[in-house]
């Protein structure tokens, strides 16, 4: 089903908002009638040359406002009974449109609240939620569902639910923190006991809490360029001023941080697998940054992104384990290895931040499901997590090798890619003979796991640079998928 919507790629207005407004206008003008079927999100994404996730977000906004309905298995339809204000195009009742921002602003929001409202104007809120990459998670065939079911069943049986007392440790179940401390000291050579670990429902919650505790509006914080857009957005929401430090094959360039003359509050780094380039910070750079943090009195926020999946080289020790001055805040989660079974994240805190984190967390997130924590603690302490990583690592390695072979075979010198054998996705650059939008359109049509890296850059970004996922694609399908992409682009 073809459907025309006016989309301006050069406009400062987010694409998902343009789609939403275009569908609203079509409904108001009678081009879309009540109960009429809408194009599928995939077809509309191909037609508009944008991400399917962008279209899905627009549909979600329209559903929440009552303009469309979703019928499972049938698709999306214009609502049979439309809201009374459907013809009032000046102020549609949709989340975060301009009129809503004005109303919310007049309602007495704090400066923090106002920054949250305007976050989409600063950084696209969905930039890192790349549906085409399966959000960076592993394939369904690698998820240890059966073993997890055993752990949950065991945790449920081991407690008499009627007699469970109210567990109130804001840092998380002690048994889980104890299991995590043992696992991390073995696998990442960190220095910690259970008393320095805080459990969250995800790593974003831990990041938000730490920034709330440390960052005042106007504080200078350093991020990687290119770097994870979610971290940059969180820092901006908390009022930080950002310095974008460059990245090379050895990780963040510490000399650029050293050249900063004003006080620094925090440096955010992904040393195990730089996001998105895949660069691994060298031991020399790690020690250099730790020394500078001590001299200049700032914290290092170490996001141990994708540390579980390295193929060949032995991983370097976590920066936290090299820290002699209690300055590294270590953050990680189970997304890469256990999604969708577990979404827990955790922090390893400097000793000086344990007490204040305990008090703050007791106010904003004091509870986490007891049975799920118990199941996760048993999953780790009984060795299932490490066996799962050991089993899936060679699978991911083979899938990465298949992607490298396919790109080399079908694109030759017209595509280059990261040489870092790690992670669950790969940075790929196509040469100028290809058109950026043509690559995206072809990938959408062929269901190729690919997305542009524009959101990782604060200013100018390289043309034709993409992340390609491989962990969730069966090895035997990778070659035929890349071959089909090459044939269409070469044609």
Q: What is the topology, as strand order, of the major beta sheet?
A: 3-10-9-8-7-4-5-6
% residues in beta strands: 5-15%
Spell out the CATH superfamily of the largest domain.
Type I PLP-dependent aspartate aminotransferase-like (Major domain)
CATH class label of the largest domain: Alpha Beta
Beta-strand segment tally: 14
User: Total number of helical segments?
Assistant: 19
Average pLDDT confidence is 85
SS content category: alpha/beta
The CATH topology name of the largest domain reads: Aspartate Aminotransferase, domain 2
Major sheet attributes: 8 strands, mixed
Number of domains: 3
End-to-end distance: 25 Å
Radius of gyration over all CA atoms, rounded:
24 Å
Instruction: Using the 3D structure, state the CATH architecture of the largest domain.
Output: 3-Layer(aba) Sandwich
| Low-pLDDT runs | 89-106, 124-130
DSSP helix fraction: 40-55%
Shape: globular
């Amino acid at each position: 089903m073809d459907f025309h919507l006016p989309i301006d790629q050069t406009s400062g207005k987010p694409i998902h908002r343009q789609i939403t407004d275009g569908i609203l206008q079509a409904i108001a003008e009678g081009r879309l009638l009540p109960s009429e079927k809408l194009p599928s999100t995939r077809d509309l994404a191909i037609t508009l040359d944008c991400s399917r996730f962008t279209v899905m977000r627009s549909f979600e906004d329209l559903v929440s406002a009552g303009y469309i309905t979703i019928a499972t298995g049938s698709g999306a339809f214009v609502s049979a009974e439309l809201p009374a204000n459907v013809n009032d195009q000046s102020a549609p009742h949709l989340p975060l449109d301009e009129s809503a921002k004005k109303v919310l602003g007049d309602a007495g929001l704090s400066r923090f609240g106002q920054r949250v409202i305007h976050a989409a104007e600063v950084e696209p809120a969905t930039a890192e939620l790349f549906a085409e990459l399966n959000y960076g998670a592993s394939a369904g065939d690698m998820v240890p569902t059966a073993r997890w079911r055993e752990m949950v069943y065991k945790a449920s049986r081991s407690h008499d639910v009627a007699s469970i007392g109210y567990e109130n440790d804001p840092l998380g179940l002690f048994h889980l923190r104890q299991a995590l401390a043992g696992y991390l000291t073995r696998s990442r050579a960190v220095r910690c006991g259970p008393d320095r670990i805080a459990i969250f429902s995800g790593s974003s919650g831990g990041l938000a809490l730490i920034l709330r505790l440390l960052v005042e509006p106007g504080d200078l914080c350093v991020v990687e360029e290119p770097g994870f857009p979610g971290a940059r957005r969180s820092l901006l929401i908390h009022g930080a001023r950002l310095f974008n430090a460059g990245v090379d094959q050895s990780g963040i360039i510490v000399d650029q941080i050293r050249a900063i003359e004003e006080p620094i509050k925090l440096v955010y780094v992904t040393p195990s697998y730089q996001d998105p380039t895949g660069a691994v910070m060298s031991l020399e750079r790690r020690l250099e940054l730790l020394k500078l943090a001590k001299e200049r009195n700032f914290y290092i926020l170490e996001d141990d992104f994708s540390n579980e999946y390295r193929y060949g080289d032995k991983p370097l020790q976590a920066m936290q384990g090299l820290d002699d001055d209690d300055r590294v805040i270590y953050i990680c989660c189970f997304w890469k290895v256990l999604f969708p079974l577990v979404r827990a994240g955790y922090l390893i805190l400097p000793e000086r931040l344990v007490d204040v984190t305990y008090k703050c967390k007791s106010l904003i997130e004091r509870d986490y499901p007891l049975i799920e924590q118990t199941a996760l603690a048993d999953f780790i302490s009984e060795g299932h997590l490490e066996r799962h990583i050991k089993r899936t690592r060679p699978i991911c390695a083979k899938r990465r090798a298949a992607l490298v072979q396919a790109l080399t075979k079908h694109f030759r010198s017209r595509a280059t890619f990261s040489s870092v054998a790690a992670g669950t996705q790969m940075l790929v650059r196509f040469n100028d003979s290809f058109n950026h939008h043509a690559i995206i359109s072809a990938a959408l049509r062929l269901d190729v796991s690919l997305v542009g890296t524009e959101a990782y850059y604060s200013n100018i970004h390289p043309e034709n640079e993409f992340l390609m996922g491989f962990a969730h694609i069966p090895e035997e399908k990778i070659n035929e998928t890349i071959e089909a992409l090459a044939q269409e682009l070469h044609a």
